[in-house]
Amino acid sequence: MNIFFKGGRGLCYLKRLSHLFRSNNNQSRTLFSFILGLICVLFSGAQAQSGRTLGGVVRSAADGQPITNASVSSDKLQARTDTEGKFAILVDKPNGTIIIKHIGFAEQSFAYDETTTILEIGLQPAENEIEEVEVVNTGYQRLKRSNATGSFVIIDSTLLQLNVSGSMTERLRFVSPSFLVESRGDNDQRIQIRGMYALREDVAKPLIILDNFPYEGDLDDINPAEIESVNILRDASAASIWGARAGNGVIVLNSKKVKRPGLKTTVDANTTLMARPNLMNNRQILSTAYFLGFEQYMFSLGHGLADTADFRRPALSPLYELLLDQKRGKVTDQDVQAQVSKWGLGDIRQGYMDHVYRTAQNVRTNFSLHYGGEKSMTIFTAGYEKGLENIRDNDSRRLSFMLNNTIRPNASLEINFGVRLMDAQNRINGLGSYGSLNVNGKRLSPYLTFLDDTGNPADWDIYYRKIFTDTAGQGLLHDWKFSPLRESGSTDRTSNQRNIIADVGLKYKIADFITSAVSYRGSLMTNNRHFYYDEETYLVRDLVNRFTRIQNGSPIYQIPNEGILDKGDQRNYVHHFRTQITGNKNWAAHGLDVLLGGEISMSRTLNSENRVYGFNEKWNHTAINYQTLYPTFANLAGSQYIPYLESYRAGNDRNVSLYTNINYSLYNRYTVSFSARRDASNLFGVETNQKWNPLWSAGALWKAHEEPFFNLPFSQFDVRVTYGKSGNINKSVSAFPTIRYSASSLQITQIPSTSIMGGYNPNFKWEEIGTLNASISFSTKDKRLRGNLEFYEKKARDVIAFEPTDPTTGYTSNPKNSAHIDGSGIDASLDFDVLRLGKLNWNVLAQYSLAKYTVAKYLGAGLETYIGFVSDGSVLSILEGYHPYAITSFKWAGLDPETGNPQGYVEGAVSSDYGRLVLSPVLDQSYNGTAVPQSFGNILNRFSFGDIRFSFNVSYRLGHKFRKNSIFYERMFSNNDIHADVLRRWQKAGDEQTTDVPSLQYPINTRRDQFYLNSDATVLDGSSIRLNDMQMSYQINMNKLIRRGLQPVDLFCNLNQINWVWWKSNKEGVDPDFKDGFRPSIQWSFGIKTNF
After folding, report:
1. Are 831 and 905 found together in one domain?
2. Buried b (16+ CB within 10 A) or exposed e, 192-217
3. Are 463 and 619 in contact (CB under 8 A)?
4. What whole-number distance in Å separates Cα of residue 335 and Cα of residue 315?
5. Is the dihedral of CA 804, 807, 813, 817 positive or negative?
6. What is the CATH number of the domain that holds 116?
């Protein structure tokens, strides 16, 4: 409490005695009043004669935050601001100047006169504060971007906030050159930085660094609201400090830190909505009426009727059952026609949209508290995310906390400790997306409905025939029907994930230019799976029925007539310990930065899975005999063992590293750097020189704009050249033989067994990647145009791949250092302030990347051994001279004009000998290119007008191919998989001029279908340009809010996942990013953000 007493023209300030007034003691209050009155009487005149007190408040002009501990001076008199930015200073002149100073802000002076009473002062951030943003963090040290020789990408909070997704991957997509997100056949997203220089996807991913230590979890498990900036390390000089794990790039995540003294609170909340997908817009799926006509055609051919005699009683479609009843005289032709007409009006896709899908909702709330004092800084963040997925009964939630505290007891010592927690839950209790259900491997009939004629949940025959399930067991078995609506939500399939990370660090300044540091991180990551199926779920009813035997009119259950619980537990314990010394010294024209350190890391992974039968709410369960063959009911599957699900795995990984980094500058114009690292692991060869792997880098920087002779219109023109070696490590393989134990119940002999998983490889060693990088960075004098252009060349050696092995050893292949990968590319970015017109501004950020790489050498099987091998690029292939995701195809010779048969080449001649065509060697096939874009980038346009912001991002992906979906007649008959290309098939002479789709012939020739679908005819260019996202925000910036302690309020609306294709190179209308025809819906996000 600050109390001012005015006497005459002066003001008496008695802050130190105010505690007496607050005292509950009456005597203290009386004493305080007496002393106060005495002072006012005795000194009021002197105060009036010697000067007066000026008061005011100091805030940041950038964000309105109060500035604590700012220096306020006038002549020789000084004062400082309190935690609210307020100050009071005694001045002894009627006119004068007050000077305000604070680290990180430009010094400012203010004149005062006799009329001045209260000052409201806004300090502007200093220029060096702006330069501080251009600091790169390698995870070991922070370097000024202007003095670093390596290739770095800095993604600040402004770019990260263009997308409000809770996924860190989505935040980074389309805002950085060289950063590519790819989806392969399993739809998992994979990140590539400058390509892929390993032959195993889990090894080829970039190394993730979170606050200076490797992060072993999933990138998307990190709450983006906790991250201030991201640095991407691309070349050897930048990344080789991370040694054997940096060969495919390094992504460094920097958590938010306290920047200024004082208290700051930030709250932001947003909601994302995504409409249910419109399944009816897929032009690759034909109408229900067409499908019914085709089914009648198949029935007339007798196709599939053999299933009526199959002892397994496989389910038939409703139309087949109806036609069989017609054939037996149970229904009339008119009845069939009426039912077919009724079915033709419906579509199961619409049923999925009505009963399975819904509008997805995601609500996120984030809170952060920053406090900076003289000797300590604390930041606390909390985030909560709740999501309802597009599939009903599927939902998720994520809770995250981060606490970081830095204490500086004195000028030499700094202590840091922090903890981070992420707790997430995913529940997958829904029916599944369209296409996930099938009828014994066949697509669901499109005329199936979710409700029957009475409006009740319908039953589907998807495993067994209705005629069998209606009477099986004469009422002594469980209901054997499958009802999709009753099944949805009836299970409890829950996954719980928890990540806990604890950090402790200590820094001590030994001298002005030498600092030592010791740090430790311990982390525990768990993932528990709890999938419970009660006795009413189809999985339990089916298993119980199959293993039930009816004897003397009573059922005998081999599987308990209760629930089934599938459990899984994954645990990963990781420990990192690091000690290092840094030195920074500038003298005369010289500058030196030195880093020397070492670290030890240890991790232990434990995985277990098991199934419990007879599980109930009381956690009781029943022991099962897994070693006896039981006859299945009605001999549906002969005799079988009861399914056994139990496994246990464990792994240990230990690494030791030594490293150093040296940067030397001359005249702040020339810089050279050198780094070296040596890693050791328990996974590699038996000799010490194989366990230890030396990696290094060297670089040079020339600031050409600092030269006296430089006369170009640039305020910055930097030239950088680096070369070095980094590496990869595949933790799934070892130099030593490995075996796997199998339980006796899994063997026919009923005896436990072991199998050899890999052989002895004493020469096994690290993968090594050499990278040459050259770059130019520039900025015009008016700062309107800034850019960067880089060329790189990468060569990976000793890449681990599987080589064929003599099968008499007990295994057919063994991982060895047996491949080379060579590549090169370009990265470019241009940041241009197109328009600066008062409040109106327009900025364009254009980014481009080119990445080409191939398997240069493979010591395994040669190309001549690949017979009949074709690839659509969805899986990794090891073909010497080809891209790892190569698309290879049978050479196409068009359609036969007389029969519509697809034609290829055998020994150079046109042929329809499909037996030979599908066995053609790779050397005789077409290499269409790669399924991964070779060129990609984006153009981000940002506009501002006063408090209004608007931006949109356009991306492009060029230079790749994809294999389109098309007709496969064998699947059309056997799996109900009918593609719309059947309408474009050859039907008469001359059609070969306008179509490549073969004619329909029955009986089906599967090799004919294989040849067509894997030929050049189904490969299209994947190049496209599309609008990805749009953002708009408005800042409510009212003086009344600021006076009340509330900072400007930001309101925003984002549109993501727009996928509006502006241009695509293929003319068939196929979207290369969604070749199955199903495009995700647009995501709409609305939110608010403010500070206190």
Report:
1. yes
2. bbbbbbbbbbebbbbbbbbbbbbbbb
3. no
4. 22
5. negative
6. 2.60.40.1120
CATH code of the domain containing 248: 2.170.130.10
- Give me the pLDDT at residue 1046, please: 60
Model pLDDT, residue 11: 34
Would 640 be classed as within a structural domain?
no
Per-residue DSSP letters for 281-332?
Answer: G-TTB--HHHHHHHHHHHHHHTTTGGGGG-TT-B---HHHHHHHHHHTTSS-
Q: How confident is the model at residue 19 (pLDDT cuts 50, 70, 90)?
A: very low
Token pair, residue 391, equals 């599939």
Question: Does 154 reside within a domain?
Answer: yes
User: What is the DSSP track for 612-666?
Assistant: EEEE-TT--------SS-EEPGGGSSSEEPPP--EEEEEEEEEEEEEEEEEEEEE
Q: Are the CB atoms for 1003 and 974 separated by under 8 Å?
A: no
Cβ burial of 689 (10 Å; 0-12, 13-18, 19+) is exposed
Q: Is the same domain home to 103 and 160?
A: no
User: In which residue are the tokens 């528990």 written?
Assistant: 528
Whole-number pLDDT of residue 296: 96
- Tell me the mean pLDDT in the region 955-974: 96
Judge if 216 and 342 occupy the same domain: no
**Which pLDDT does position 440 carry in this prediction?**
85
- Rounded CA gap, 561 and 544, in Å? 7
User: What average pLDDT does the segment 358-386 reach?
Assistant: 94
- What is the number of structural domains in the chain? 4
Q: Residue 941 in contact with residue 952, Cβ under 8 Å? A: yes
CA 649 to chain centre: 26
Does 1062 fall in a domain? yes
Rounded Cα–Cα distance for residues 563 and 478 (Å): 13
**Domain that includes residue 215, residue range:** 135-258
DSSP 892: P
Residues 342 and 217 reside in one and the same domain: no
- For residue 973, give Cα distances in angstroms to 138, 437, 656, 996: 58, 18, 59, 20
**How many CB atoms sit inside 10 A of residue 49's CB?**
11
Boundary residue ending a domain (123, 157, 181): 123
Question: How far from 46 is each of 36, 50, 697, CA to CA, in Å?
Answer: 16, 6, 71
Same domain, 68 and 187: no
Q: Are residues 150 and 96 in the same domain?
A: no
Q: Is the pLDDT of residue 901 over 50?
A: yes
- Lowest-confidence region among 673-687, 828-842, 914-928: 673-687
Q: What angle do CA 544, 547, 548 make, to 5 degrees?
A: 80
**720, exposed or middle or buried, with CB in 10 Å at 0-12, 13-18, 19+?**
buried
Please report where in the chains the tokens 């809010």 appear, as a residue: 1041
At 444-468, the pLDDT tens digits run 999 999 999 999 999 999 899 999 9
- Weakest-pLDDT range from 363-367, 493-497, 810-814, 918-922: 810-814
Give, in order, the Cα–Cα distances in Å from 586 to each of 130, 583, 594, 698, 706. Answer: 22, 10, 12, 21, 18
Which pLDDT value is given to residue 93? 80
Strand residues in 704-812 grouped as ranges (E): 714-728, 738-742, 753-758, 767-780, 785-804
Taking the model in full, what pTM does it have? 0.84
pLDDT of residue 594: 95
Q: State residue 13's pLDDT score.
A: 35
* pLDDT at residue 956 is higher than 90: yes
Q: Single out the residue in 123, 153, 178 at which a domain terminates.
A: 123
Are 603 and 575 a contacting pair, CB within 8 Å? Answer: yes
Provide the pLDDT for residue 806.
64
**Whether residues 998 and 855 fall in one domain:** yes
CB 826 within 8 A of CB 850: yes
**What is the per-residue pLDDT across 761-806, written as a single tens digit (0 to 9) for each?**
777 788 899 999 999 999 999 889 999 999 999 999 999 888 777 6
Q: What gap in Å lies between CA 986 and CA 999, rounded to an integer?
A: 5
Take residue 682 and report the two structure tokens written for it: 């328990």
Question: In this structure, is residue 655 part of a structural domain?
Answer: no
Domain shared by 936 and 1051, yes or no: yes
